[in-house]
Amino acid sequence: MDRFRQIEIFIAAVEHGSIAAAGRALGLSPAMAGKYLSALESALGTRLLHRSTRALSLTDAGQQYLAASKRIMEALAEADAEARDGRSQLAGEIRLGVPRAFGTQKLPPMLAAFCRAHPQITLNLHTDERYADLVDGRLDLAVRIGQLPDSALYTRPLGSIHMGLGCAPGLLGAHERQEISQIRRLPRLVFTAARSPGDWMVRDSEDRAYAIDGPAAMRSDDITLLVHAATEGLGIVYAPMFALDEALEDGRLIQLLADHRTTQLGLQIVYTDRHHQPARVRALIDHLTACFQEKRA
């Protein structure tokens, strides 16, 4: 029997809740649908579904096989679409992973311009401060900040991200002069998803390094939450300048040690395949690269 047909019936049985309903959805009799499913289980040598008179439920093997089967059928559907429409067509879905704060504060104008230029493309954004695996997350590409782990990913540099220290104006008390010794004692708001060495490190004009290593008042994997906590006077935050800019401009935060150098983090696009990318993915990579080059000019 056709293996793809067997997989199609297996997926439909799970989605519709019964083998008979799966058969009806696919234009088959319940008996024929059952034969396809039994043939699949026989070929695999394991049971995929628990059957009862009232319902179906997945076995452990069935759960794993369902996830793999969906990926196979989605890949087949995409291959069929590309064969029909051509890889050069700027249409379809792009799954893009972005850091949450960066995606919220920096990317909307760039992505809006891309969507207006390519109305047949749908952007599916996945926001997460941690590095989701592109293959497991079924992402076409992702924007990454900071040091990348060793991997087989391809990269396209976009620029760099400047880091800074900020706190509420009242946190320093009556001291107008910012002293390293004073600032090092202040409570810190620590970003737990940081990926690069050199966090909480500043260098003076003579290249002497100082670690800001006060006690942690709060830890979070959400940098925006930590910035808001800093505006409430809870402690000092070490964050990308794009996350601090608004609060600095309206006076809710002051920048600490602005005359000292802090870490610069690399900003890049990462993707898994540079030879067989759909045209829509290449177009987005080129668009984002051009946008950041224009901002640096």
Overview of the molecule:
The structure is a single chain. With 297 residues, the protein is of the alpha/beta class. The protein has 3 domains: 3-85, Orthogonal Bundle (Arc Repressor Mutant, subunit A); 92-159 and 266-296, Periplasmic binding protein-like II (D-Maltodextrin-Binding Protein, domain 2), CATH 3.40.190; 160-264, D-Maltodextrin-Binding Protein, domain 2, CATH 3.40.190.10. It contains 10 helices and 13 strands. The chain has helices spanning 3-16, 19-25, 30-44, 60-85, 100-105, 108-117, 180-183, 223-231, 241-249, 279-296, and strands at 49-51, 56-58, 92-98, 121-127, 141-145, 154-167, 188-191, 201-203, 209-211, 216-220, 236-240, 254-256, 264-271. Strands 3, 4, 5, 6, 7, 10, 11, 12 and 13 form a 9-stranded mixed beta sheet that branches. Helix 1 (3-16) crosses helix 2 (19-25) and helix 1 packs across helix 4. The radius of gyration is 26 Å and the shape is elongated. The mean pLDDT is 88. It holds the Pfam family LysR_substrate.
The gist of it:
Belongs to the LysR transcriptional regulatory family. The chain has helices spanning 3-16, 19-25, 30-44, 60-85, 100-105, 108-117, 180-183, 223-231, 241-249, 279-296, and strands spanning 49-51, 56-58, 92-98, 121-127, 141-145, 154-167, 188-191, 201-203, 209-211, 216-220, 236-240, 254-256, 264-271. It has 297 residues and is α/β, with parallel strands linked by helices.
The average pLDDT is 88
Order of helices and strands: HHHEEHEHHEEEHEEEEHEHEEH
Helix proportion of residues, in percent? 25-40%
Quaternary = single chain
Strands, count? 13
* CATH homologous superfamily title of the largest domain: Periplasmic binding protein-like II
| CATH topological fold name of the largest domain | D-Maltodextrin-Binding Protein, domain 2
